[in-house]
């Protein structure tokens, strides 16, 4: 069975990321740095130089992701974890995608309906 580590990242995908990033800068005291997505901007939420989270638009590679905070868990094998997810009654919401040549992730829903992402270095 694949093992996971502590969450590596969290992000939120919403229709109007610019409004929601403003909400979290005001409520949580975070700062916001725009991240160019080629035609629009997502946001890295920071405290000083430390990047804490992402707030993303529900478009492009993020289309279809539900508007919930999603933790990202590192797994040893993305392929094996996705197979196990489905065997155990989970659903793959977004199939594997690349963050860069070495990091790949997928968004899953467990049998209770909770959503998370799993990622692996390959």
Kindly describe this structure:
The chain has 122 residues and is of the alpha+beta class. The chain contains two helices and eight strands; from the N terminus they run E-H-E-E-E-E-H-E-E-E. Strand 3 and strand 4 form a beta hairpin. The chain is globular and about 40 Å long. The chain starts with a strand and ends with a strand. The relative contact order is 0.20. The model has no long low-confidence stretch (mean pLDDT 91).
- Total separate domains: 1
Order of helices and strands: EHEEEEHEEE
* CATH topology (level 3) name: 2,3-Dihydroxybiphenyl 1,2-Dioxygenase, domain 1
β-strand amount: over 45%
What is the CATH level 1 assignment?
Alpha Beta
Helix content: 10-25%
Largest sheet: 8 strands, mixed
The first-to-last residue Cα distance is 18 Å
The CATH architecture can be named as Roll
Radius of gyration: 15 Å
SS summary, helix count: 2
Question: Could you give a short description of this structure?
Answer:
By secondary structure, the protein is an alpha+beta fold. Helix content is 17%, strand content 52%. The chain has an 8-stranded mixed β-sheet with strand order 2-3-4-1-5-8-7-6, covered by helices on one side.
Describe the structure using short key phrases.
122 residues, alpha+beta, 2,3-Dihydroxybiphenyl 1,2-Dioxygenase, domain 1, eight-stranded mixed β-sheet, 2 helices, globular
Describe the secondary-structure layout:
Elements: E1 4-14, H1 17-27, E2 31-36, E3 41-47, E4 50-57, E5 69-75, H2 78-87, E6 91-100, E7 103-109, E8 115-121
């Amino acid at each position: 069975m694949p093992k996971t580590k502590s969450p590596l990242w969290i992000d939120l995908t919403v229709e109007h990321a610019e409004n929601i990033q403003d909400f979290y800068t005001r409520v949580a005291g975070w700062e916001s740095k725009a991240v160019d997505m080629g035609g629009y901007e997502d946001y890295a939420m920071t405290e000083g130089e430390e990047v804490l989270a992402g707030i993303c638009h529900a478009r492009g590679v993020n289309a279809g992701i539900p508007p919930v905070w999603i933790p990202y868990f590192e797994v040893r094998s993305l392929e094996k974890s996705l197979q196990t997810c489905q065997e155990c009654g989970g659903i793959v919401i977004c199939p594997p995608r690349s963050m860069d040549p070495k990091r790949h992730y997928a968004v899953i829903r467990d049998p209770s309906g909770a959503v998370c992402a799993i990622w692996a270095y390959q």
